[in-house]
Amino acid sequence: MQVQERVFDVDEFWRFACQPENANKRFELINGELVEMPAPGEEHGFIAGEIAFHIRLFDSDRKLGIFTVDAGYYSQEDRNTVLGPDVAFRRADEFPPPLQKKWAPTMPDLAVEIKSPSNTLAELRQKAAIYLRRETQLVWIVMPDRRGVEVCRLDANGEVEREFVAEDGALSGESVLPGFSLELRRLFA
User: Fold this and answer.
1) How many domains would you assign to the chain?
2) 74 lies in some domain
């Protein structure tokens, strides 16, 4: 749902989001436009928690990077877009801590978007393209209604490539989390 037509940048968006009347609301900024997002449901929260848990468990000894849940990210080349993936991972060697108090001024290496009843697949695919064209290497679009995940990455020509992994398959961390594998049956129990 669009809430305002004025074009915002990352700094104006931060001030807007921090106003007391917006304290319990969730927004993203896409091409300068505010998009209000309803609070996710329980199924959504469970899936986000499971993915974050497995990434954390995998990376606890490897220390490849950090994972976040519902944190904001933006590309320094595009100060009019701030996305808040449901779960994200960014490699520490590319943008080492300290953690940002505000939104991270880089895109995650892995972004996870979980389809809620308020989302359309077209909207999530559009967000996946935004991530990928702004430095993200891998996007997982989790589709509880289809009991699977659409894995998105850029092909050699810079086009978004999509691969559907059903609940009997597993997600790979590919080059972002080498060696990581998550059996999807864990998400759709």
Assistant:
1) 1
2) yes
